[in-house]
Design brief:
By secondary structure, this protein is mostly helical. It has helices at residues 16-19, 56-67, 72-82, 96-109, 121-141, 147-170. The longest helix is centred in the C-terminal third of the chain and has 24 residues, at 147-170.
Length: 177
């Protein structure tokens, strides 16, 4: 710990659990940027004993996870140093058409009849289909039009209309065409 006022080292006989944070190491930068007047003059550093500290590996794993977005090479190096397997390569982004096809498949999956039995099961199933399809359709309305989006929007709108008709039928209301 490098601070203006050094923290005194605890008595050697003090139990480890009671020692807390104290100046145990003197850390210097190899590039000299911790010299007086330089960018890192007076910076504080925290040293972890990777060979004997039982918490060190977990701390570095957490640091690697935390810095993985901004400093991916450092995160990878830390994981490698720890002996952890490399993270799987990210999935290639789906094409826009594949994305909307997956959305459509999810909507179709949700069309299954309500798990709950009873007289209101058809109404609940139709309502769930309606809400899912309408939400997806409305989300497309905010995007610039493309052929894939238009095709998907048309399919979603047909699903909205069909689900609305099913809800009306289940509720005993007249269905208009």
């Amino acid at each position: 710990m490098n601070t203006d006022k050094p923290t005194p080292e605890p008595a050697p006989e003090a139990p480890k659990a009671e020692r807390g944070l104290y100046d145990k190491f003197v850390v210097r930068r190899r590039d000299g940027r911790d010299a007086p007047g330089q960018k890192h003059d007076g910076c504080r550093y925290f040293v972890i004993d990777m060979d004997h500290d039982e918490h060190a590996k977990d701390a570095l794993r957490a640091y690697a996870e935390n810095c993985s977005t901004d400093l991916p090479a450092l995160a990878d190096d830390l994981r490698e140093w720890l002996g952890d397997p490399p993270l799987p390569a990210p999935e290639a982004p789906a094409t826009e058409y594949e994305f909307y096809e997956r959305q459509k498949a999810e909507i179709l999956r949700r069309q299954q009849p309500a798990e709950r039995g009873g007289a209101d099961a058809p109404l609940l199933a139709a309502a769930r289909r309606y809400i899912t399809a309408k939400t997806a359709h409305d989300a497309l309305a905010d995007k610039p039009p493309t052929r894939a989006r238009e095709r998907t929007a048309q399919e979603l709108w047909r699903e909205v209309v069909a689900a609305e008709a099913d809800m009306r039928r289940a509720a005993g209301l007249k269905v208009s065409r």
